[in-house]
Known about the structure:
Blueprint: E1 2-3, E2 6-7, E3 21-24, E4 27-30, E5 38-41, E6 47-56, H1 59-72, E7 79-82, E8 100-104, H2 108-112, E9 120-124, E10 129-138, E11 145-150, E12 164-173, E13 180-182, E14 188-196
Antiparallel strand pairs: 1-2, 3-6, 4-5, 6-14, 7-12, 8-11, 9-10, 9-12, 10-11, 12-14, 13-14
Amino acid sequence: xTYRGFDVLEVEPNxxxxxxSTYRRSWLRFDPGTGKVRVDDRTGITALDNSFAWFMAxxxxxxxxxxxxxxxxxxxVPFWFPSWRSDLQLRTDAASTDTTLTIDAIGYTKYLFPQRxxxxxxxxxxxxxxxxxxxxxxxxxxxxxxxxxxxxAPGVALPAASTLICFLFLCRLESDEVKITxxxxxxxxxxxxxxxxxxEVP
Length: 202
């Protein structure tokens, strides 16, 4: 699957070890030795480094993994990675034709929407995955709910109780070298590290 010209890693991670993320921010610290210490936020954007455990149950899955890694050309070719976390939570069910959705208030409008890298989301259902861009957000200030507007209708109903909404991160592999650990002649596992590149989102 591709979205906005980049492949999407749709493989679900191996939940044995969970997902780990490290927040990264670029800043300069000015300390004259006396007086106040000043910190200059160089980018104004928070980026995440993610770990991903990829379990391969058979030779076909190993071939799929190798094809994905080969298409990355080391750390050169970016891809989308769903966080697989409940980053946003629907407050009410959404119809297949809805473009304005109500979510639980988390400060998205104020803190996250201004960052373009946090405007791309995946709606993950039991039988499908839908990718959309959030084009507008509004916080009425009640501390309970916010509304987001997506660029096009999802095309399927989104039940609040069973829809996982997670951010899509544009990432690249952290290393050009990827190792596969073989458990049997056909079952294998690999641990990948991703580096988010938020300033390169389309």
